[in-house]
């Protein structure tokens, strides 16, 4: 795989820390975000929340397809040497654009532990937001590939990783 790649991993199935997100919690967030679109996306209204999380991530993070995404560092404090809170918004997403109004986009918020040479994005919440095609003042627009890692696996060091230290030094988000 060439180009700029974002490696991501689903959250754990069991909560390991008080504040950690699980696949079930992510699935509930997805179901809430799409509650007005149950007819268009029935797969996200199931009570099998881990299945919802897996299906959504498969739909949102298109495998083997480059897509333009808007990234925002939502961290309230600069803690980038340990982790950042990251938003990924895809304005004209091929899976969602046919069923959601053009002025609405799907965004995923998650975190990225950065104390490693090969950071991984871990999704925590999903919401519907403005669908503007251009990046906002606090976003960085990048054409990227997404690659899902299995539990306990890590990005190959030989592949370019978009979430390198140069990238996550984008200014902390919306609270400026």
Main beta-sheet annotation? 6 strands, mixed
Overall pLDDT confidence: 86
User: N- to C-terminal separation?
Assistant: 36 Å
> Structural class, please?
alpha+beta
Based on CA inertia axes, which overall geometry fits?
globular
Number of strands: 6
The number of helices is 3
**pLDDT < 50 runs, ≥5 residues:** none
Radius of gyration: 15 Å
The residue fraction in helices comes out at 10-25%
Q: What fraction strand?
A: 25-35%
Q: Which strands sit side by side, in order, in the main sheet? A: 1-6-2-3-4-5
| N-to-C SSE string, H for helix and E for strand | EHHEEEEEH
SSE blueprint and pairings:
Elements: E1 5-8, H1 23-33, H2 49-60, E2 67-73, E3 83-90, E4 104-113, E5 122-130, E6 139-148, H3 165-168
Parallel strand pairs: 1-6
Antiparallel strand pairs: 2-3, 2-6, 3-4, 4-5
Polypeptide structure, described:
This protein is an alpha+beta fold and 176 residues long. Helix content is 15%, strand content 27%. It has helices at 23-33, 49-60, 165-168; strands at 5-8, 67-73, 83-90, 104-113, 122-130, 139-148. Helix 1 packs across helix 2 (49-60).
Brief summary of the model shown:
The protein is of the alpha+beta class and 176 residues long. Helix content is 15%, strand content 27%.
């Amino acid at each position: 795989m060439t180009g700029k790649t974002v490696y991501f991993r689903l959250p754990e199935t069991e909560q390991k820390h008080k504040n950690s997100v699980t696949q079930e919690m992510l699935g509930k967030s997805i179901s809430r975000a799409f509650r007005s679109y149950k007819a268009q996306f029935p797969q996200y209204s199931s009570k099998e929340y881990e299945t919802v999380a897996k299906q959504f991530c498969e739909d949102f993070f298109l495998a083997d397809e480059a897509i333009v995404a808007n990234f925002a560092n939502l961290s309230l404090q600069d803690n980038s040497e340990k982790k950042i809170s990251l938003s990924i918004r895809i304005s004209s997403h091929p899976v969602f654009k046919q069923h959601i109004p053009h002025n609405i986009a799907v965004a995923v918020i998650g975190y990225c532990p950065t104390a490693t040479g090969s950071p991984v994005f871990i999704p925590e919440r999903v919401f519907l937001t403005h669908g503007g095609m251009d990046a906002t003042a606090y976003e960085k627009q990048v054409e990227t590939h997404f690659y899902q890692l299995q539990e306990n696996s890590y990005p190959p060091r030989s592949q370019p990783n978009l979430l390198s230290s140069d990238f996550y030094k984008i200014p902390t988000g919306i609270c400026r």
